[in-house]
Amino acid sequence: MSSQDKSEVPEEHLPEVPASAHVPAESDPFADPGLPAHEPRRTDIDEKAANRAERQVAFLFVISMLATIGFIWSYVGIDKDRIIDIFFFGKIGAQNAALGGTLGIALFCIGAGAIHWARTLMTDEEIVQERHEFTSDPETREYAIREFTQGASDSVIGRRPLIRRTMIGAMALVPLSGVVLLRDLGPLPGTKLRHTEWKPGTELINEATGLPIKPDDIVKGSLTMALPEGLVEKYGPAGQKEELSHGWLEKAGMSAVLLVRLEPKDVKSKKELAWGYEGIVAYSKICTHVGCPIGLYEQQTHHLLCPCHQSTFDLADDGKVVFGPAARSLPQLKIHVNEAGNLAASQDFAEPVGASFWERG
Fold first, then answer.
1. Distances from the Cα of 274 to the Cαs of 202, 318, 339, in angstroms?
2. Of 167, 232, 262, 353, which one's alpha carbon is 20 to 30 angstroms from that of 197?
C-alpha cells in the first residue's frame, strides 16, 4: 500500500501498535537529562563559613592593593641599573623583576578574589535559558533589567560591605600601574629642551680636531662644525672617539653649530650681522622639522639643506625656511672674539633648538 493510500484510511481502521513497540524515554540516548537536584554550599547554610569566605576575598583584594603600591614604589625606588641573581633565571634587572612580580600579584589577586567570591557567596542556582532570537524588543530589555537587578542582589554586594570596599579599592588602584608606566615614555625634560651647553664666553671648538676656532679658520664657502669647549674637554672630539657615548651624543645633538663666512653685503638681516663676527655666523646644526643633523651647504645661494626631508634654510636671511616641511627658522648663536682671539658664544640660543614640541609656546 502506498503512503497516499495509507493517508486515506480512517484512523480507527489502522492496526493498533503494541505497547512493547514503544521505546521508554529513559533508554533514549538523546533525551534531555535535565538538571540535577540543587545542593546548597556550606556558605549558604553556615553564616560563619560565609563570613570567613568574605574575609578571604577581602584579603585577596587587600593583597592586590599592596602589590599595586609595591609596583609604584619599585618604579621610583629601585635603581634601573641594579642587577640581581634569581635562581635559574640568572642575572636580571632588579627593577624589571619587581615590576613584573608586583603587577602579576596585583592582577592575580583581583581575579582570584572575584572567582572565590563567585564560587562561595554569589548565588549558584542553576538557570536554564532557551535560545531566542536576537531582538531588542521591549520585553527583552525589561527582562535584561530584571536579570541585572537580580544579579546585583544575588551577588550580596549590598550585604557584604567589606568585599565591596576592598574590591573598589583594588580596582581603583590597579590602573595606577598603567598610569605610572606612562612615565617611562621618557625622562621629564624640565628645561633641557630650552637650554644647551652654550654660555656667555664659551669658546667654539672644532668638532673634528678639538681645537679652538679662530676667525681666520673659517674660509668662504666652507662649513665648519663646532661644539662648546666644555663638551669637547669632557667627552673628546668626535674624530678621536672610537665609540660615542650616550652623553656625548645627547649634549652634542643639542649644542652642535655650523659656522659659515658670508659677505656682509649678502646678509639681508641686520640682526644676523650683529650676532655674527665679520660675516661669520653660527647656526644650530639641528633641523627644526624632526631634528635631523644638517650638513649640506650651497655656497652660491647660501642655502642649507636638510638631507632627511629636504627642508632648506637661507643662512643669509636669519636662517629662514625657503623650502620643505620645516616650520621654523634655524636658531642663530650669537658669537664674538674673546681676548685669546678665539670665537666664543655671547649667550645661549635665544630659542629652543631642534624639532618643535607642544610645550614650546
1. 18, 11, 19
2. 262
